[in-house]
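Hi F.,

I've been meaning to write this up properly since the lab meeting, where we talked about keeping a consistent format for the predictions we share between groups. The idea is simple: the sequence comes first, exactly as it goes in, then the structure tokens exactly as they come out, then a line or two of notes. No screenshots and no reformatting. I'm using this chain as the first example so we have something concrete to point to.
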Amino acid sequence: MCSIQAVPAVNAPKEIANVVATPLSAPAYWAEACKHLVKKDRVMKRLIPQYAGQALQTRGDAFVTLARSIVGQQISPKAAQALWSRVSALPPSMTPEQLLRLKVDDMRAAGLSARKVDYLVDLAVHFTEGRLHTDQWATMGDEAIIAELMAIRGVGRWTAEMFLIFYLMRPNVLPLDDAGLISGISKNYFSGDPVSRSDAREVAEAWKPWCSVATWYIWRSLDPQPVAY
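Output, unedited:
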């Protein structure tokens, strides 16, 4: 059971008071973001109290976060978790150096496509050869980090945005290429009708500057298990 940190809410409406308890491991901005979203958005007002005491979590490992994102490309979260479990069991520990020691045949046998094997290898090479400004990410802007990561084979904007959300825990990322986000917006805001990127962007206007937080709750509305990379 996670520890809960209560944030005082004097004379706050019941709906808002219910969402300001967050895990100690949550981003520092989580309670503030939840209060904003509950006030500004009718769907968030309904969703957020359902997951009180829960929040975005980071695995704390840049390489693993990016590797998991690559493995999870274009497959469902459930399939991605199963595939990652097999792949991550191959090396003694999932580090760039250990991954580069794996045999291609073993990675293919675990279920990776040849393309994803190539992507993971290039990712590991970027880390081992120091091609990434890992010590500067904390102070770099979102778009600068996205541009740097997209130089890695197989890392597109979606993968870079997952990294911003799940590793750097940036608060205002809106991953419009994410099928789950689009599906969740369709379900929660449009009664299941098809949703365009423009529709999703319009919905997200009320979420700013906490789009990452709202996206996390949209994902939760679709899956009882938290999305994590």
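Notes:
The chain is about 50% helix and 5% strand.
The domain at 62-166 is CATH 1.10.340.30 (Endonuclease III; domain 1).

If this format works for you, I'll send the rest the same way.

G.
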